[in-house]
Write a sequence for this structure.
C-alpha cells in the first residue's frame, strides 16, 4: 500500500483526514460534501496508480473524477457567491458550458481518453470564479479577518492550483524538455507543488471552519 502513496497523493489523504475531522458536523451542508469529494479524489488517485503500475489504461477513471470536480466545485462557488449576490445564473452558465464540453469530448474520442479540453476550460472558469469572489469580498463593507476566513483560503487554493496548472499546460512543450531527475521532468514537480498548495490551503480552510463552528456555538 505504501508503494502507492506518491507525494501528491499523501497530501490529498492528509487533506481528506483533516476534512473528516473538521467538517463532519459543519454547516451549511456543502462543507460536509467536501469530505465525500475528497474521498472520491483519493480513491481515484490510488486506483489510477494501481492501473498504471499494472500496465492498464487509467485515463477513464480521471474522466469520472473530472465530472465530480465540475459538479462539486461549481456547487461550492454557488454557495460562496450566494453570501453576496444571487449568483445562480453565473454558476448555471459555467456548469452548462462544462457539461456540454464534457459530453462532446466523450462523443468524439470515447470514455477511455481524458477530456483535456474540458479540463482546460474548467480551469479558466474556476480562475474567473475565484477572481470574481475576491471582487465581491473587496466590495463587502463588513470586517473579515482573512487569516481565519475558511472561504477565503478555500478559494485561494482553487486560484493557485488552476492558474498554475493552466500555465503549466500552456507551456508544457517547453517545460517537458527540462529534466530534473533521471525519471521525471519539470512538469511533474510543478504539479506536486500545485497539489501541496491547493490541499494545504484547503486543510487550513477546514481548520478555520472548525474553529468558527466552535466559536459560533460557544
Amino acid at each position: 500500500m505504501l508503494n502507492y502513496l506518491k507525494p501528491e497523493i499523501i497530501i490529498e489523504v492528509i487533506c481528506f483526514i483533516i476534512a473528516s475531522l473538521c467538517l463532519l458536523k459543519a454547516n451549511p451542508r456543502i462543507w460536509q460534501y467536501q469530505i465525500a469529494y475528497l474521498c472520491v479524489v483519493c480513491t481515484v488517485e490510488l486506483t489510477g496508480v494501481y492501473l498504471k503500475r499494472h500496465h492498464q489504461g487509467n485515463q477513464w477513471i480521471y474522466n469520472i473524477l473530472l465530472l465530480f470536480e465540475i459538479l462539486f466545485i461549481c456547487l461550492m462557488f454557488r454557495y460562496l457567491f450566494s453570501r453576496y449576490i444571487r449568483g445562480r445564473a453565473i454558476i448555471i452558465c459555467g456548469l452548462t458550458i462544462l457539461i456540454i464540453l464534457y459530453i462532446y469530448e466523450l462523443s468524439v474520442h470515447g470514455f477511455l481518453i481524458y477530456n483535456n479540453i474540458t479540463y482546460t476550460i474548467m480551469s479558466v472558469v474556476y480562475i474567473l470564479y475565484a477572481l470574481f469572489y475576491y471582487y465581491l469580498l473587496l466590495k463587502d463593507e463588513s470586517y473579515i479577518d482573512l487569516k481565519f476566513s475558511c472561504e477565503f483560503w478555500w478559494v485561494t487554493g482553487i486560484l493557485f492550483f488552476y492558474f498554475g496548472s493552466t500555465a503549466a499546460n500552456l507551456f508544457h512543450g517547453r517545460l517537458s524538455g527540462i529534466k530534473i531527475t533521471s525519471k521525471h521532468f519539470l512538469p511533474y514537480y510543478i504539479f506536486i507543488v500545485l497539489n501541496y498548495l491547493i490541499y494545504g490551503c484547503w486543510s487550513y480552510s477546514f481548520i478555520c471552519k472548525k474553529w468558527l463552528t466552535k466559536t459560533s456555538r460557544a
